[in-house]
Amino acid sequence: MRLSVNSLGVISLAIAATTLPFAEGLLKNGLLEVLLLIPVAWLLIASRTREYALRSVLVLVTLCVTVTFCDLLLRPFIGGRLHYSPMNLHQRRLPGLPMLGRWDADVRFSGETYGDLAAMAGISTFREPRHMEFRTDTKGFRNDPLQHPLNAIVLGDSFAAGVGVTQRKTWASLLEQRLGWSVYNLSYPGGPYEQYLNFSIETDDLPLTPGAHLIWTLYTGNDLDDTGGETWDLDALPWRNGLSAALVNYRTFRDRSPLRQAWESVRSRWNGISEDVVVRPLPDGRSILFYRPQEVWGTRGRAEVERHPNFAKLRTTLREMHTRAGRMGIHMTIIILPTKGEVYHWLLNPDSTEKPQSSGFAQAVIAACRQISLTCLDSRAYLRSEARQIFRRSSDLLWWRDDTHLNDLGHEALATFVVHAVAGPIPQ
User: Fold this and answer.
1) Which of 61, 156, 316, 346 has its CB surrounded by the most CB atoms within 10 Å?
2) Residue 420 CB contacts under 8 Å (≥ 6 apart), including other chains
3) For residue range 248-272, what is the model confidence (pLDDT) as tens digits?
């Protein structure tokens, strides 16, 4: 039986509807949907040209089917190779509360990686390759299976999670080794509000020793600019279940499209080095990279920080976290982390004078913490002093040259600072 133009159109649209969600993973701007809607509208309203419109729809259907097939076929083979770090590949949204992120559960990775700034620049000569081990627990955080009740919880963003550093060399792992503690790393890239929610949601399931410590890091570079939410009551959050939660998992699957990653890589190389990446020479001829937006944000004075629309929400988050930790009998300490440019100001801005010892962000947060009797320490002066001494001795750095994050030496220095913060005098 011969199918009519209308029947073929309906069948074609059904196929497109089935495959388009996968194909859309290639382009993030909805271009495929727009391209599809044009001939569909033509097919519906222009009766004299329906045959030509149908051909256009068939072309787009073929495109959707081809993209979908290639995407599913290539995922097992090249999906992981297109990400500069396994920590990016395995990121996902929490189905029940998509504003929060996790890594995939029970990840076991051992291999080579390089820095976020080198990936952003798209120039291979900037890369500083290193071996990294990355493991996650059943919750999707960077931990080995629990062996003992916990003496401490480490909370923060990518700096606390140890992005770019192998598992046993993160400062959280070094705390375990130096203090003989059992430490749980509850850190994941994101802002203070998300960290508060992660702590509130997960700690009930964690076995804590009496008088356990919470060590919470705040980052000068972007924590004020992570807008966060305005609901601190867990029961009032926009929880999801059923089909709504399943859609979150689907979007995670779609967003991991290897075709999308390949396209983004090609586009990055085509556009050239990002204006957000600042390149500076080291005395030995190597290049060191900085991320301009974070360095600009890190130069704000205290008054500007306190006027920022997000600062009031940050103060509320600090207060709510302090209250919650206090009810649990947890000793809470906040550590403020500087940007790469704050520590290596002489490299980023060779013609300018040194800045004060504490950033405006640090000054504002410390003042807010004093109002609620919360211990808050700025690691900037200590890391800057360590950075100068190490560079004079060996020309080594505390940050990866191609990354916004600390390297092995940086994690060792930060671990030393934190050890003294919770167990002894603070290094001057």
Assistant:
1) 156
2) 426, 427
3) 888 888 778 777 777 766 666 666 5
